[in-house]
Amino acid sequence: MPLRYAVPGTGGVGPAEAVRAIERVLLDGFDPEAAPARSVVPVPAGELLLMPAAAGRYAGVKIAGVAPANPERGLPRITGGYLLLDGPTLQPLALLDGAALTALRTPAVTAVALRRLAVPEAEHLVLFGSGPQAYGHLDVLPAVRPLTRLTVVARDAERAAALVAYGRKLGLAAAVGGPEAVAEADLVVCCTTARTPLFDGALVPAHAAVAAVGSHEPDAREVDEVLVRRAELYVEARSVAAREAGDLLVAGVAGRQVWNLAELVRGDALVPAGRPRFFKSVGMAWEDLAVAAEVHRSR
Fold first, then answer.
1. Is the per-residue pLDDT at 196 higher than 70?
2. Bridge partners of 78?
3. Counting runs of H as helices and runs of E as strands, what totals does the chain give?
4. What would the mean pLDDT of 74-99 be, rounded to a whole number?
5. Residue 31 has pLDDT above 80, yes or no
6. Quick check: 94 and 7 in contact, CB under 8 A?
7. What CA–CA distance (Å, rounded) separates 169 from 117?
8. DSSP label at 79?
9. CA-to-CA distance for 113 and 262, rounded, in angstroms?
């Protein structure tokens, strides 16, 4: 079976379709705990990630580069490609833009979680970061909650202002703010390269939901141990979080109940009303596969 096409972006598949594709895989019974591990290879420019997966009719592998110095050169921090394969024969079907795929599936995973963790009336989003993932999350989250207000917290004032302007185009009352804005948040989303906590977890209201997507390293975190100790905890897979989720590992969660995304989507996870809910995402290969397969089906 020959390679059919190369897709420079994501082939017209948008956030809503990506959310449905990820939910469909989990509702069909896929177990994220059994997914293959990510391989990380250090290289002079950063690191190379090898992410294989197989589910249903498809298999695939993403080779991604993480180059921390790229933004200073005007280049994306995340690079790479995705090879989609026929599941039964492992014959190539399509080659996709790996960076575009990552930019789409990461906020879609967050949306899958926050659709179930955020209070129905959530209106105020506090968004940390101003890069591609911040824009991606801003594109998808209004579809799962009735957002009316956006506070952007970012180091680069010019980029923060640009994201605020984008939020206003989406119809949100948007402004730049500081970390203390989490005290008035319904949703907090962290899309940064931070290695130390971005805000005081004691300030987060009991009704709020928090998501952190910025790292997959055991010694890097965007939230502090105060929030982790206060919150009900959710991850894509416990097996992966035990290796890569620095937000949880640094805080120490041994003996704690940690729910995975499949349990959350299938309605088996506890979602309490009296404490924050914290979703930590490190990114998994099965998520890329779910969205890549949706791109293939949509052609």
1. yes
2. 66
3. 9, 14
4. 93
5. yes
6. yes
7. 26
8. E
9. 10
Confidence tier at 1 by pLDDT (50, 70, 90) = very low
Looking at residue 180, its amino acid is E
Residue 193 · residue 215 · CB < 8 Å: yes
Cα–Cα dist 293/28, whole Å: 15
Question: Do residues 247 and 280 touch, judged by C-beta distance below 8 A?
Answer: yes
CA of 215: how far to CAs of 56, 116, 195, in Å?
A: 28, 22, 8
Q: What DSSP string runs through 224-259?
A: -HHHHHHSEEEES-HHHHHHH-HHHHTT--TT--EE
Locate all alpha helices (DSSP H) within the chain, ordered by sequence: 15-27, 98-117, 132-140, 157-169, 225-230, 238-244, 246-249, 261-265, 285-298
Q: CA quadruple 122, 123, 124, 129: dihedral positive or negative?
A: positive
Q: What are phi and psi of 255, to 5 degrees?
A: 85, -10
Buried b (16+ CB within 10 A) or exposed e, 135-150: bbbbbbbbebbebebb
Asked if 212 and 190 count as a contact pair (C-beta separation under 8 A), the reply is yes
Q: Nearest 5°: CA angle at 46, between 43 and 49?
A: 80
Do residues 276 and 208 lie in contact, with contact meaning Cβ atoms separated by under 8 Å? yes
Rounded CA separation 58/15 (Å)? 21
Q: Which helix (H) or strand (E) holds 176?
A: strand 173-176
Query: How far, in Å, CA of 6 to CA of 97, rounded?
Result: 8
Q: 134, 90, 140, 87: which is closest to 112 by C-alpha?
A: 140
Provide the residue type at 90 as one letter: L
- C-alpha span between 96 and 13 (Å, rounded): 12
Name which of 160, 175, 53 is nearest 125 in CA terms: 175
Task: Report residue 224 as tokens.
Answer: 């502090």
CB atoms < 10 A from the CB of 155, how many?
A: 12
What's the whole-number average pLDDT of the chain?
93
C-alpha 21, offset from chain centre: 15
